[in-house]
Task: inverse folding
């Protein structure tokens, strides 16, 4: 098999992994890398927020696991291929030098014992860094079950590491991915966390200590392949951020993929849905944003009586309408934390309000220029006692704010 064919197979096999942020936004192409891009190249956000082009491939799509939702599972009727380390290093370098890519995302099917798979991924990253003069971004997948020595080595050459949790509960893992172990996945996350902390401490004392995965670790959760609800997913995410200091949890709508010869998924354990639940994925990203940047707790966003996110409203607006007793908020005196809870006031607008109101009197017009989205904020704020609109009728506010949001995806992802 020639290299072009391998690339075609192994890039297609990697496209469903969203844990490098090439997914997870509403711009993504779900079936390819975008017009004009070479096969396997995706736009992606790095840990520090830069948008880069990433070569996203598997080392091999040979896999001895049988995860029901995956096109690469052992029982799938799909063409198999594997790179050699030299092939992947020279391909990555050639594309990096031509400026097609600024980074590599490398994962793999489980084609042997976990240590052997991990060693191949590490060898690729190490060769890129030490022999090929490659200075780009590297995201490596951690294969759960490998020892600390290999995780240490992976973090030495990679910017970011990730072990995918994939499904939110043990029971779901047992049903759909019986060879995966939640315990091993959490162990891998724990080791990445401990090593990262240890290297940071060492560097404070010894300046020449090498860096360890400076862009931290992330994971991916598949949404809609099981009956797990949004509340379970959000609680898991909150606990992953808390326990393992993950930089990101990525949500990937379950893709019903059809067609024999392409790993067609017809497993009776999977839901029969015509399309991936993209709106649900989008709402989870918005709720995740509330966890990470707006200091919401998971149990404030969803409770047992409301286990799914609102399809018509972004989660912050849905929360505010449910808590109208906490509004209106007086913008000229409210603290930053309270401002963050107002729909239409983001972190940047909140900071600008605090900075600006110390030196001049705010008006509704000036709020707009500070970045406040008055279309949403107007029902929840007062300015020196004056209303733009009164927060008296939740049904009316809901109706007005649902307009234009019924598809959700039309809104900028994090503009709320
Ligand atoms: S381990 Fe599971 S999810 Fe990963 S490639 Fe193999 S079958 Fe797919």
Result:
């Amino acid at each position: 098999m020639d290299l072009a064919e391998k690339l075609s197979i192994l890039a297609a096999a990697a496209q469903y992994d969203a844990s490098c942020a090439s997914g997870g936004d509403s711009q993504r192409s779900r079936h390819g890398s975008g017009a004009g891009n070479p096969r396997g190249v995706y736009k992606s956000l790095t840990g520090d927020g830069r948008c880069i082009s990433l070569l996203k491939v598997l080392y091999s799509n040979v896999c001895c696991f049988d995860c029901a939702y995956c096109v690469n599972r052992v029982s799938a009727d799909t063409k198999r291929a594997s790179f050699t380390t030299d092939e992947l290093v020279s391909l990555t370098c050639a594309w990096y030098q031509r400026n097609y890519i600024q980074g590599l995302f490398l994962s793999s099917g489980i084609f042997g014992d976990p240590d052997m798979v991990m060693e191949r991924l590490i060898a690729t990253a190490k060769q890129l860094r030490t022999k090929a003069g490659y200075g780009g971004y590297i995201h490596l997948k951690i294969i759960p079950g490998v020892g600390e020595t290999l995780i240490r080595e992976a973090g030495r050459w990679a910017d970011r590491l990730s072990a995918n949790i994939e499904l939110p509960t043990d029971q779901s893992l047992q049903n759909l991915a019986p060879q995966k172990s939640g315990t091993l996945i959490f162990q891998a996350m724990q080791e990445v966390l401990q090593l990262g902390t240890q290297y940071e401490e060492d560097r404070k004392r010894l300046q020449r200590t090498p860096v360890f995965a400076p862009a931290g670790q992330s994971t991916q959760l598949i949404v809609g392949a099981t009956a797990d609800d949004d509340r379970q997913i959000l609680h898991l995410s909150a606990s992953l951020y808390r326990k393992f200091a993950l930089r990101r949890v990525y949500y990937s709508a379950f893709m019903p993929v059809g067609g024999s010869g392409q790993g067609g998924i017809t497993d009776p354990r999977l839901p029969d849905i015509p399309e991936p639940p993209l709106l649900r994925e989008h709402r989870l990203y918005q709720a995740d944003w509330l966890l990470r940047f707006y200091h919401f707790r998971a149990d404030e966003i969803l409770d047992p009586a409301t286990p799914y996110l609102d399809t018509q409203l972004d989660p912050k607006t849905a929360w505010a309408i449910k808590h109208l007793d906490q509004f209106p908020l007086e913008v000229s005196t409210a603290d930053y934390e309270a401002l963050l809870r107002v729909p239409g006031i983001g972190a940047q607008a909140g900071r600008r309000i605090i900075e600006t109101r110390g030196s001049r009197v705010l008006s509704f017009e000036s709020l707009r220029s500070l970045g406040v989205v008055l279309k949403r904020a107007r029902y929840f704020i007062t300015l020196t006692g004056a209303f733009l609109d009164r927060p008296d009728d939740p049904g009316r506010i809901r109706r007005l704010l649902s307009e234009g949001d019924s598809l959700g995806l039309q809104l900028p992802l994090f503009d709320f």
Q: What stands out?
A: Residues 315-402 form one domain. The beta strands are 41-45, 51-58, 103-107, 137-141, 160-162, 217-223, 248-253, 329-330, 381-383, 386-387.
